Every structure is written in C-alpha cells, then in structure tokens.
Amino acid sequence: MIVSFCDAYRSFTDLKRDHVLFSLATASNSNEFLIFWDEANKELESHVRERKTEYRGMDYKPNMWHSICTTWDSESGLVQVWFDGRPSIKKFSISGSTIRGTPIIVLGQEQDAHGGGFDINQSFVGMMSDVHMWHYILSPCEIQNYVDHLNFTPGDVINWSALEYQIVDKVLIEKKFETCH
C-alpha cells in the first residue's frame, strides 16, 4: 500500500508530440499514477488515481536532460512537480486515498490496462535514467541533491541501481554518459 510518494527520473528526448514518462497501474486502476507530457498545451500532467493536475511553464526543451520529481501527499491531497530543480505550485488532486494492490510500473508507455493496453502514439522515445520512487515525500533539500547528482537516499520503492526489469520491444540498456569536467 502506497500512502504518499515521491518519484524522480531524468529524461532526454527530441519528441514533439504527446508522450508518457511514468505509469503506475493496479488491477483496479490503470492510472493510479501517471506523468504525461501534453505537447499541444505545453504542459506536464500528473494523474493520481485518475485525477489530473496540469503544470504549465516548464521549459521542456528537446535534446536536453531534464530532471522531474513529482510528489503526492495523500493526507492533504497536494501534488507538486519539481522540474530541473524548480518547484511548481502545489495543486490539490485527491486526499484520503491510498494506492492498493500489486502495482505494475512502466516507463515510457501509458497502461490503459494493468500491464498493457499501450498506445504507440503516447510512447516515449528517448533516454531515461536515475528512476527512483519513495513511499514518502522528499524534502526540498533531498530533491535538490537528486537534481544536482549529489549524495541522496535511493528510492525505497524503485531504486535505479537495483532495478529488476523486463525489456519489451526496442529498448537499449547502456551505461550512463557522464559529462566531462
């Protein structure tokens, strides 16, 4: 059972269309948690238990690495997106609710059914790295440490360094490119 959470990842793409970055589904709800880029409206959408919040003003440039961290507090119902280290305003989504059941997490595809029902027109094409998820909300300092590639506590729900995964279709796994200093 997930009461509150924080997820974080880095992505790099040249897409100029809608695409899904992160999808968590259970048998009872295909959109328990979803992060979606809406190209037409130039907004990042966070869906928690089918409730959508929209965030505009993100400088989501192609061919650049971006760090995205989304938090949801089930008690207050507040969702917040941190884009490249900058926090958005907090928006109300749904409160007093938990994510129950066996989750399936898919990167780069929306699940219209638990573990399936994919739409190629919403698929992510690009690179992803450093995917983490915590069952609690990180402090602003912890989020900044993640964004700045500093020492941070790895996710306790998803830990990129200890991830068990299944590759479906065309996926390339390679070592992360480190910027030279």
Q: What's the layout of helices and strands?
A:
Layout: E1 5-13, E2 19-26, E3 29-38, E4 43-48, E5 51-56, E6 66-73, E7 78-83, E8 86-87, E9 91-92, E10 104-107, E11 126-134, H1 140-147, E12 158-159
Antiparallel strand pairs: 1-6, 1-11, 2-3, 2-10, 3-4, 4-5, 6-7, 7-8, 7-9, 11-12
In short:
This protein has 181 residues and is mainly beta.
General description of the model:
The chain has 181 residues and is mostly beta strands. It has one domain: Sandwich (Jelly Rolls), CATH 2.60.120. The chain contains 1 helix and 12 strands; from the N terminus they run βββββββββββαβ. The strands form 2 sheets. Strands 1, 6, 7, 8, 9, 11 and 12 form a 7-stranded antiparallel β-sheet that branches. The longest helix is centred in the C-terminal third of the chain and has 8 residues. The chain starts with a strand and ends in a 22-residue tail after the last strand. The mean pLDDT is 91. This is Pentraxin family member.
